[in-house]
Write a structure and sequence with these properties.
There is one protein chain. The protein is mainly α. The protein is built from 7 helices and 2 strands; from the N terminus they run H-H-H-H-E-H-H-E-H. Strands 1-2 form a two-stranded parallel ribbon. Helix 3 crosses helix 4. The longest helix has 21 residues. The mean pLDDT is 85.
Length: 128
């Protein structure tokens, strides 16, 4: 399902076409919300990210550290044999390192750096 399509100028004046595109976008968002969960950023996660930074552990960008620690905390809280977690991160520079991959694998998180691969894996998990 593709949501980021460009509506040609010739279709902009056609309310039915715009309505159909908006409906497609809403449907895609609803489908995503059905399988995605928000991850909180707490003071404890913030402290863990700062500690990781002080220790010089990857990922090394401050924002990446916050995201990464949030994912680890979420994964630790939700680990279960029947739960699969897929993490899409387009910043392979900071996340495609052995320590990060190993740590994520230890809490049952699969990391992907290409959206197509992540979508393919989610579809497999959903049986589609």
């Amino acid at each position: 399902m593709r949501v980021n399509k460009i509506i040609p100028k010739s279709e902009i004046r056609n309310p039915k076409s715009v309505h159909a595109s908006l409906k497609e976008a809403r449907d895609a968002l609803e489908a995503l919300q059905a399988v995605a969960l928000p991850i909180a950023f707490t003071p404890e996660i913030n402290a863990a990210a700062k500690l990781r930074c002080v220790r010089g552990r990857p990922p090394h960008d401050v924002k990446d550290l916050e995201i990464y620690e949030s994912i680890l905390a979420f994964a630790r809280l939700n680990q279960s044999p029947n739960v699969a977690m897929v993490f899409l991160e387009r910043d392979a520079t900071h996340f495609d390192v052995p320590e990060v991959k190993s740590e994520l694998a230890a809490v049952s998180v699969e990391i992907y750096f290409k959206a197509g691969e992540a979508v393919k894996r989610v579809r497999e998990l959903l049986g589609k």
